[in-house]
Amino acid sequence: MAASEQRVSAFSYVPRAVAPRAMISAQGVQKRYGDANGLLALENITLDIAEGEFVSLLGPSGCGKSTFLRCLAGLERPTGGSLLLDGAPINGPPEKLGIAFQRDALLDWFSILENALLPADFGGYDKKTYEPRARELLNMVGLKDFTDVYPSALSGGMRQRAAICRSLLLKPRLLLMDEPFGALDALTRDQLNVDLHHLWQQQRMTVGFVTHSISEAVFLSTRIVVFSARPGKIAEDIHVDLPDDRKLAVRDTPDFIRYTQHIRGLFEKMGLIHD
């Protein structure tokens, strides 16, 4: 599906007349595994992402969302098209990158504070210099009293909060998250949605967020890029015009419901949701 063939509706994202320069630019990105007859995961992904946007990638399992995120992280390379960060090809993990996956991947033999400080350790920075920031982040997500506790003593939600703090330690310009809350119970997931939104408001990093949850994408995002089934194409690029300071109560508003119904309708038309 070419960019000109992407679905256009009243919800579709339209760049502002005077838009900031794209931080990320994908032009005709393709990803095929194996030889010319191998699995085609992504086909003709074309979009620009400005600095400071929170962009959710939403679609069915196997549609290439995570593949595209790994390409953004420099962990995989496209087999076609171009993928640029600040005008230069992404050939490896960019500087000032934060990344979080569905599994928290905390080191059980390190305390929560030590886990939060790992990026400084890996980057060759002085951990003592970054300790105040690590403590500040842990305090912001309700882990102030657990800095010396080991991960095995914490709930899944608390571990994931610590993982988010770790990803934010070095003040990343780009934060990439792949289903970070997918394994959590509904109440914990709701709270972490609020925590992440508050952190994004304060830090204003650019976020790429993979999810299967329509309501989660609408709550968190400034834009939602809806992927079709494999090979992943952009079915629609949606601007989310909701209050910047969002509380969970926004999910009960007519505007929020209008977005979720529209996206659900897209999936119904794709044959992915059946009554």
TrEMBL record:
Classification of source organism = Bacteria, Pseudomonadati, Pseudomonadota, Alphaproteobacteria, Hyphomicrobiales
The record ties this protein, via InterPro entries, to: AAA+_ATPase, ABC_transporter-like_ATP-bd, ABC_transporter-like_CS, ABC_transporter_ATP-bind, P-loop_NTPase
Q: Name the residues that span the membrane.
A: none
Which keywords describe this protein according to UniProt? Answer: ATP-binding, Nucleotide-binding, Transport
What's the name of the protein?
NitT/TauT family transport system ATP-binding protein
Annotated Gene Ontology MF terms?
ATP binding; ATP hydrolysis activity
| Entry similarity comment | Belongs to the ABC transporter superfamily.
| Domain of life (superkingdom) | Bacteria
Q: Which Pfam families match?
A: ABC_tran
Q: Does the keyword Nucleotide-binding apply?
A: yes
Q: What does this protein do?
A: Involved in beta-(1-->2)glucan export. Transmembrane domains (TMD) form a pore in the inner membrane and the ATP-binding domain (NBD) is responsible for energy generation.
| ATP-binding found in the keyword field | yes
Instruction: Give the source species.
Output: Bradyrhizobium canariense
Q: Where is the ABC transporter domain?
A: 24-254
Against Gene3D superfamilies, the record matches this protein to: P-loop containing nucleotide triphosphate hydrolases (3.40.50.300)
